[in-house]
Amino acid sequence: MHIPDGYLGPATSGVMYVVMLPIWAAASKIVKKTLKAKQVPLLAIAAAFSFVIMMFNVPIPGGTTGHAVGAVLAAILLGPWAACIAVTVALVVQALLFGDGGITAIGANCFNMAFVEVFAGYYLYKIISGSSSVISGRRVIAGFIAGYIALNIAALSAAIMFGIQPILHKTASGQSLYCPYGLNVAIPTMLGEHMLIFGWVEAIITALVIKYLQKQDPSLLEAGEGVAL
Amino acid sequence: MKTITKLWIGIGILILLSPLGLILPEYFKAGDAWGEWGADAFKEMVGYIPQGLEKLSSLWKAPLPDYAFKGWEEKGLSSLSFSYIASAIIGILITVCVVLLIGKFLSKKK
Known about the structure:
By secondary structure, chain A is mostly helical. Chain A has helices spanning about 10-35, 40-55, 70-80, 80-100, 105-130, 135-165, 165-170, 185-215, 220-225, and strands at about 60, 65. By secondary structure, chain B is mostly helical.
């Protein structure tokens, strides 16, 4: 889901930076009000987890690869705004140091994985959890479903960015300037593979860590509550 | 042991296992992620290399492209796995330092 340089035209990558700037600004403002000093290590762990889990490329035999993002877990543990910052840092380091995701596409990639997935995952988890206690099995299921759906929404968002390129940018001879695949290819492929395989990976890792923390230290599952808007 | 310490150990284990993200796709003959091909791949896929894509794709020279040391690409899976782990350690160290710094600026003392 790391869109490389060149797949998005300047219009899309520019707009995505412009969209992300106020989101990053709001995130810093809100995190400044809500993040306690003792939560900072957990923020670092969430970013590290997101970084390393994205390196676990899961194969579709004979086909492509994909991976989980860990963004839903970060959102559950820290709230969506802090999670947005954690995943953003991981994505920026991946782009600058490792060329995983383009420099021009940092806005777009952060929009998909550090904003769309984070917020979708956070609210899905909240809605499904309802008023259940943090140690209830319902929370594990909520994390599972939120992880699965949120990663797929992020994949859909990326697919739309890919898919609108042939509409936006074409040469006189009809060749695409950037991503040549339209919505009719990008959406079924991206969504299909994430629904089939990668979404389940996000679901399982989110649910497993929640389950582990319920046994180990349930207080960590309370901290992320009530820090949204 | 504190939970945070245990979680760091978990991250360490994930780092050591990370080459699975390299080895499994190789084993199952899975190629690049969709939409993350090199510019050259388009020649075969759509018959031409999109001009804008070709120009922008070489915009940034990452120091450790694809989590590998330069010149190690041909050295085989064990060398690649080693550089994958090294990349994970470097990347995570930097990520963690940046987040701790941001956290220091943003968090409340109490």
